[in-house]
Write the structure tokens for this entry.
Amino acid sequence: MRAAFYARYSSENQREASIEDQFRNCDRACERYGWPVVARLSDEALSGTKNDRPGYLALLAAAKRREFDVIVVDEVSRLWRDQEEQWRAVKRLEFLGIHILGVSDGINTQAGGYRLLLSIRGAMNEEARREIAWRTHRGQEGQVRKGFISGGRLYGYRNVPIENAAQRDHLGRAIVVAVRREIDPEQAKWVVWIYERYADGWNPRRIADELNRMDVPSPGSTWLRKDKRRCRGWAASSIYGDQKRGFGILFNPLYAGQYVWNRTKRVVNPETSGRQHALRPQSEWLEQEVPELRIVPEDLWERVQIRRERQHEASKNMRAEDNSATMRRLESIQKEIANIVAAIKAGAFSTVLQGELAQLESERDRIQQSLKPPKKKGEIVNLVPEAVERYREAIEQLETFALEEDMSEAREIIRPLLGDEVKLVPTADGHLDAELATPYSGLLKLIAANIGKCGTEERT
């Protein structure tokens, strides 16, 4: 039987040699069985709960093309840590006649009773994932309470590792036991510059354009990324951010000397399996005063927050006024229609009245349609006007979305514009091409300014 290997490790703190170690165990098994190895696929620093892992998707695509007969893994947990995806994939592979062999955990889908063993292993793997997440969160809280950071990078600061010379890794290097944050003078001056321009009446888009014109390095432009993404300059979204979640340069309280941790959490949308951020109750937040990390002077911070609040209130009032004017116009139209209908019934029919009635009815229908609530996901919608209106509203309110480094939340935000299915097709050079299942690719131009921009802050 032709064998395909799959290996994965989930944390950037794990060694990349872990992939080689897993492949070594798989090689030994194939040598015993006499199976030729036709493919070796892997994913680095990616959780087994993610279904959009490039190596995993390429494995499933190759299985669909029947390029091998058996998938060999060190442990089945390398393939899945989510039982729903596990059984969905197992059924698909069974239909294709492809087997699975777990070298270290004894899973063999050719053996009798494998479903019971796989169920037990799957439940154990999922529970292990939850336990790891809980322990990680507990450790992060401990670091924050000691005055260190729990991870992430923020424009205006640099992360300084704290090493323990008494502890060494397998290469003899000192172990990093914590990370503290300190002000980066070069970036800090641009943070203050942004606040000053905004306080003087500039909008985020104008600020971003000016920073790009001056070739000021954008947030994340010097960060080392495993996925080799490239920044395309400053974005208005990275400056404006989100008030509720406290990120974006104009909303992050750390610039005013207050550190807020545990504000949000990551949750999985059960319908799409996409991960996104959700706000935690304020009682769970951990807030600390860190005056040594203040970048923006108090008076400037207050001026900016006052202007933002005024703009927010003005935007709400404008929408309320627009709605009131619309309702008044609709009421007026309905009265005019009623008067014309009464006149026609009284015998005053004419082509002029008929034309006026048709125009009023058309305007009434248009207004009533605009007042309808947004269509639910899955219903047929006219995507182009909605996308244009969405983009226009974002500009008017100076609000745009900010992306997660793993892009999961961005996918959730743009999904209604692109449809529910984006097909990833492996290429000959080992990359993936994305194909839209529906011809909506032109809509990407409307939100291109917000896609692919680099993040500016940690997610807490």
